[in-house]
Design brief:
Elements lengths: L1 H15 L1 H36 L4 E5 L18 H12 L4 E7 L1 H11 L17 E6 L5 H8 L5 E6 L1 H43 L1 H9 L4 H41 L8 H30 L3
Length: about 300
């Protein structure tokens, strides 16, 4: 009987404040969707770092004849075979180095042509202008500075470059998007809380006579407050369901459209989205219930 009464009161409250309830559902849905998107962007960034950092290499470039006039480090001319071999010997002694692959000028020129087929410099630049290099894979890519300090400035070495720098701009952009999503999420959650509080106030005011009678006949605070709290939690549940639908729709868009066109990004799977959804439901309903509870402490006093 009590459960039936609570459910009937929930229906009455939702019908009386239909417009505000819809506003609560939409605002909660948007704020939770942004919260979920922020969490998924964080997982995406971590996944990409783990995927790409495991594949990046450190390149040790050697001086060419053309560098003698343009680089003080290469003033003595092109690197000799002995200088190139000395670097290899030192690399083999470093526990941090997993593998090291030599790339000749001809191989570097061929790879450059494949990656820049429309570059007008192809007709003017030959293979001799491309530096020879050791391409080094590290067991811990974050310790690039160890290789940098060991080989920078050595005879015949023009520069030591870390491919991670190419990826830092991409990760910086993704981290910026995550921060923006988080800020907007906080603002939307604040708006949702205000709407929940106002909806509960209006509902409590419109039913103040009924609740007053219930208090006079001995109904407990919990029994009086329960319909209002349940209304807010139910509206938040609908918002969480909508937010979950938005996240799933976004995931299927990424997997079925974006992933086919942006193949250099390793996108996270459906399991990450399904892990976030229960958290959104709990946070949404908990936020609404707590906000309703503290609002009712003031507005249901007889």
């Amino acid at each position: 009987m009590r459960a039936q009464f609570v459910l009937s009161e929930i229906g009455v409250g939702l019908r009386r404040n239909l417009t505000m309830t819809i506003a609560v559902v939409v605002s909660v849905a948007l704020s939770l969707a942004l919260a979920g998107a922020s969490l998924l962007v964080r997982d995406q960034v971590n996944s990409m770092k783990g995927y790409w950092y495991d594949k990046v290499e450190v390149s040790i470039y050697f001086c060419t004849k053309s560098d003698a006039t343009s680089s003080a480090q290469c003033a003595r001319g092109a690197a000799t075979d002995q200088q190139i071999q000395d670097v290899k010997v030192q690399l083999d002694k470093m526990p941090l180095v997993q593998t090291s692959t030599f790339e000749s000028s001809a191989e570097a020129y061929k790879r450059w042509k494949e990656t820049n087929p429309d570059n007008p410099l192809l007709a003017a630049v030959g293979a001799e202008a491309m530096p020879q290099s050791w391409r080094v894979k590290l067991s811990d890519p974050t310790k690039y500075d160890v290789v940098q300090s060991a080989f920078a400035g050595k005879p015949g070495v023009k520069s030591v470059e870390d491919q991670r720098k190419i990826l830092e701009n991409l990760f910086g952009l993704l981290n910026g998007l995550q921060t923006a999503a988080f800020v907007i999420m906080v603002l939307m959650l604040f708006v949702a809380l205000l709407l929940i509080v106002n909806t509960v106030r209006v509902s409590a005011f419109s039913r103040r006579r009924e609740t007053g009678i219930m208090r006079l006949v001995g109904a407990s605070n919990f029994y009086v407050q329960m319909p209002f709290i349940a209304e807010a939690a139910f509206a938040a549940l609908l918002g969480a369901v909508m937010a979950s639908g938005l996240l799933l729709a976004g995931h299927f868009f990424v997997q079925n459209f974006l992933a086919e066109r942006v193949q250099f990004i390793h996108f996270i799977g459906l399991s990450s989205v399904l892990t976030v959804i229960p958290l959104l439901v709990v946070v949404g309903m908990g936020m609404a219930a707590v906000a309703a509870f503290f609002t009712l402490r003031k507005y249901l006093k007889v």
